[in-house]
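Dear Dr. K.,

Following up on our conversation at the group meeting, I've run the structure prediction for CERKL protein from Eolophus roseicapilla. I'm pasting the input sequence below exactly as I used it, so you can double-check it against your construct before we proceed with anything downstream. Let me know if the numbering doesn't match what you have in your notebook.
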Amino acid sequence: EERRRRVAPAPAAEAGEEPLLRGIFEINKRSCDVVLSARRLRWSPILPESPTGDSNTNMQAQEEIIEMKDVFSVKLKRRRFVGQKKGGTLLGITIFKCLNKEENKLTDCAIHLNNLSEDHCHSWFRHLKEILNGFQNRPKSLKVFVNPSSHKREATHVYYEQVAPLFRLANIKTDVTVTEYEGHALSVLKECELQAFDGVVCVGGDGSVSEVAHGLLLKAQIDAGKDTEYITTPVRAPVPLGVIAAGTTNILAHTLHGIKHAVTAALHIIMGHIQPVDVFTFSTPTKLLRFGFSAMFGFGARTLALAEKHRWMPSNQRKDFAFIKTLADLKPEECELSFLPLQIPQEDSHENDKITLLYLGSKDQWHKIQGHFLNVSIMAIPCLCSMAPRGLAPNTRLNNGSMALIVVQNTSRTEFIKHLKRYASVKNQFNFPFVETYTVQEIKVQPQLRSGLDAKENTYLNAASAEGNYPWNIDGHLVKEASQIHVRVHPQLINLYGVNTDDLESSQATCNCI
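The predicted structure tokens came back this morning:
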């Protein structure tokens, strides 16, 4: 006796779950009853009834569901002969989904819905495309910058082998510029018609990302008719910035994605995961020098300046050499720090937050510190990286409208090394008597030449002054300036493609350590 097949009744529709289509497809070599709504695609295998007509199968337990918000592409599946580029026998529909993996990784996976009916497949294909086109923030056109000189010259390979295929799969049009010299991306962005794109993407290291972010924000000021010589109230960037890590440290990529992984970064862009991020302006009293996320003066800047002088060395060797040499010649910088503390409402303070309690009630009151400092860090974001999994500034956030000011007073080389080693551990790197941390809105840094030094030290410091500048490390980009520096945070000035890593375990652990 021929066995009849049974299709389960469609489940009752929830709010926004009204079925748009229902049909039969073969999935994983099993005939399935498939139901599409605006929010979900669900299917259950079609199983035979028992000879008595009773069904003893649990249909609900076998139901599988895909959230449509996790789908980023849908294609008609065809069989084609070798060399055939168009046409072919229609086999069904392939749906591409963004899948969450361990350690913050994202990957793509394909689900094949097989059905030989042209009309059936085209109807489903149209409805699926309409749903995907309705998602906000998903880019259709991107301006891409690739720095072929980043790190091990891997950026070109990373983009064309790992990222570009995903962009094509998601039907994203791209206009690619492979940069040829430092400042190339900045010059292109100044002339770029940003309204033609939904976003900008940088494939490179921290220095490349810094240049593109600065150029994107500078272009926004130009388009807004602002004087770009000195900006006190900048306008927001008109389009988001995506970061594909292809450098050595990749601080911004780690902070946004929790990991250095090109596919994860690409999928965040494709899915339109938008994260507002604070940015600071880095200026002299009369001129804007840079938009940025992090700045270091002293050891961090001297190390970068020395590494830049040895560009002929391989990237890792250059940075290791510069680190060791700067540590061997460790010297403090004499300067005056003036800062405006962050204003925190009483109800938002915590009993154990010494920084919060210190500045309650100090509205518009500038504080000054003068002394000899081995390093001064100013961070508008936590600055996560593989060498500092908790972040260089774990007591700040991506978009809380503040900056972390971390001041390392003069101390012995041994104690300073202990402080540096703490960044790679779970211990509090600020728990030293020579390290002070503050939460600030603005800061002014005034370097000062010291007196009473030996001839070697005077030569060292006067050489920096004679060049007309002291080195600063701005997001891995070397900036040299002799005059007073003014750094001011601007809340949520740019949107970046990524997630808020404040909720990740690596960041949350800091709350119990500081």
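Two things stood out to me. Confidence is low (pLDDT under 50) at residues 1-8, 346-362, 458-466, 504-514. The chain has three domains: 21-45+63-134, 141-276, 290-343+364-449+470-491.

Best regards,
J.T.
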